[in-house]
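Summary for the steering committee. One of the milestones for this cycle was to obtain a three-dimensional model of the protein with N-carbamoyl-L-aspartate bound, which we needed before selecting residues for the alanine scan. The sequence and ligand used are listed below.
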Amino acid sequence: MLFGKSTGLKGKDLINIHDMNKDQINALLDRAAKMESCDKKKLDGKMMANLFFEPSTRTRLSFEAAMKRMGGEVIGFDHVDSTSLKKGESFKDTIKMVDQYADVIVIRHPSEGSAKDAAEISKVPVINAGDGSNQHPTQTLVDLYTIRKEKKKIEGLTIGFLGDLKFGRTVHSLATAAAEFDCNLVFISPQELRLSDAFLNGLGQKGVKYEVTNDLMRVADQLDVLYVTRIQKERFEDEEKYNQLAGSYKINKAMLSSFKPSVLVMHPLPRVDEIAEDVDDTKNQAYFKQAANAVAVRKAILAEVFGL
Ligand code: NCD
């Protein structure tokens, strides 16, 4: 092993952030830091399949950039219309085909549990790049990497999650991991977009310190990190309901005076209108840093899965 502690990812699937404990996450973040400026072509001859059944910009392209920067190759699709799924081929047959063409599969799909299903079918490791509202573990590693880099620690921070906590998979993954780091969690959303009772009970059973509110300004000065999310329009059955909630929260530069001067404003992106552009040039902005960090973190994930 090149690096002190193991990430446990060698030859394994990464489906849920639960698949990694705190030590393994820290080992992955250490490796990502070392890989920021390292472009050794260690994945020469390896093939990654990017199977994107849902739209993506950052996740798909940063995985692709990571693989190619390490000398590997990439195949895949970015929408279903160009595949034989359109002709009625099953998900199972699709995965059975792809695992013969690639050494690792990265998958994004609108159904919860689809990445796990793919992993059960596939002979090669499967990395979950987002399954419905459920999980987005590699985004969480990017988020934790960014927090650690900017704040010099993760432990004990107070993280406010703002927005669509019900449907936001990045929230579910990051809140789960942040709980392992003894963070204080503050969940801020309209009533309709709250986390499920089951999720909150799970945190409570683990003794996690959390608060639920719809009043951002009441908790603003407590937060070390404000993690803003987009309302997940595509998950709403009723468009009318979405329209009622759209625009119900928006962060702008003037509001930042109510927060700690050092608050980190994060967002997995894409943003719609939850963060005004005047926040972009403030010292608090961290969302473009997250996007930039995505390549180093995904290089580290791929290197670890390939056992390098
Ligand atoms: C998020 C996603 O797809 O879950 N984006 C991302 O991967 N960076 C967030 C979102 O779509 O709102």
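Key point for the committee: Residues 58-59, 130, 136, 139, 169-170, 230, 232, 268-269 surround N-carbamoyl-L-aspartate (CB under 6 Å).
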